[in-house]
């Protein structure tokens, strides 16, 4: 931190005071503004202008930038002391300051309601606070109060209000409200503002309505850099690499200078589309333009090359870095994990340690992922020991959830249980990881017990939790418990069943020989049955000798899709063989030959285990 500025002498005029404090409040280190104010108070003279509202508005903004709640409250006390709580600029700054943090939202609401003459800026400060603190509905409710004339019949939402709300719609998945806000903006002509247009383009692109986003973009008369970047990012997110590049070329032809966001979006487009050729083209452009020397793109480039399956080029980018921070190392670790090169990922951990580089949470999660994917229990235990002994990650629920999952995938539920029991805080992911761990390790009763404890401790299960416990019931043959849990999921927790939940139920009933009930379940499923569901039923019919039902079900399997997997032909052939329909058996085998269908062999990886 830079040295604190000296307070001006008593002869310093008022404009000098205002200039210094306001300048420091808005520069890179707003701490200087607060330090100057404190020094000013220590050297207070009668002619010092301590009752100027500009000073306090600037100081409150400085406290907001520093998230300095205690200092902000102290400034608020000075505001009250000098009777400046009538000034709308100071009050707006205070509302924005208090609403920036969840723990002080109560203060923001109380202050807002006490302000006698609210402006649209006051409302915007409050709405912004609601959205930042994940209280979107409260923000919408406040805007509805404005539209209803609760404050001033002349007050109307402005373009800033709409930008805040539309951005909130994107963040919280409220597309229908965003669409309504678009209609409102058209009626009030606020859609002519570039800021609103850009927010709407972002909204439609995020919800995959690319045609609507592109229409808005092309109807915009004066497009700024944000407009171009938003549309390019929209194409990138939706895996439309070609259109992202076309738009970038149009942008350059129009003499619009690109920035880091433009190029990162292009790299992201190549990453999502797995387009290595265009990815190399972007990398070359960055080098030729000289931007590589000014702006760091290594994380995005390494990620792009690893996702495109060219990890060697990613490693080349990494090796050419003059300075490697922990983010660079993390990118390389995740790149190796992405390409299934877990040993190489774990080898980087040895280098990080030897160079005394301090890892962060992302580093540890990447290494745990490498251990989980490779099934390397030995390395997993070593990394767990490091995490415990370092003391830097003791409070990280995310890391310990990942460790539980890793131990479960490596088949060591005893270690998973030990980690779980020592966790100071457990969330739904912690419980779900244990339940899924028991399920995949064939411990159905333990999974049920963990689920009951979870509910007893007032933790609400989610869709994945139910998938885990239903899978446990399936493999343990706990049919009645499974049926009961499925009903609880649908009726009590109002969780909509997905194909995976339904698949567990079908497999559970089919394994138990309850074929008619399984078939009725399939016919009543809330989602369309896929090939996997039909295969499970047909296989069960063959196992339990219900050939007639199996033959009927083959039609369902054939209707699912035109291009069949080899397994579909094998299953159909087997049921035809059970029925003695040898002509149909030959036909299925002939189709396999014609389509060159090959059933891929499975493969397993075995790592050394600690006794």
Q: Radius of gyration from the CA trace?
A: 31 Å
How much beta, percentage-wise? under 5%
Span between N and C termini? Answer: 51 Å
Low-confidence stretches: 10-14
The major beta sheet can be summarized as: none
- Specify the number of helices: 35
- Overall, the morphology is globular
Average predicted confidence as pLDDT: 83
Structural class: mainly alpha
Q: Quick gist of this model?
A:
The protein is built from 35 helices and no strands.
Written description of the protein model:
Helix content is 71%, strand content 0%. The chain contains 35 helices and no strands.
Keywords:
single chain; mainly alpha; 35 helices
Task: Give the SSE layout.
Blueprint: H1 14-26, H2 31-42, H3 53-66, H4 69-81, H5 88-99, H6 105-114, H7 120-132, H8 136-147, H9 159-172, H10 175-187, H11 194-206, H12 210-219, H13 225-237, H14 241-253, H15 260-273, H16 276-289, H17 291-294, H18 298-307, H19 311-319, H20 326-338, H21 342-354, H22 361-374, H23 377-390, H24 397-409, H25 413-422, H26 428-440, H27 444-456, H28 463-476, H29 479-491, H30 499-511, H31 515-524, H32 531-544, H33 547-560, H34 566-578, H35 582-594
Helix pairs in contact: 1-2, 1-3, 2-3, 3-4, 3-5, 4-5, 5-6, 5-7, 6-7, 7-8, 7-9, 8-9, 9-10, 9-11, 10-11, 11-12, 11-13, 12-13, 13-14, 13-15, 14-15, 15-16, 15-18, 18-19, 18-20, 19-20, 20-21, 20-22, 21-22, 22-23, 22-24, 24-25, 24-26, 25-26, 26-27, 26-28, 27-28, 28-29, 28-30, 29-30, ...
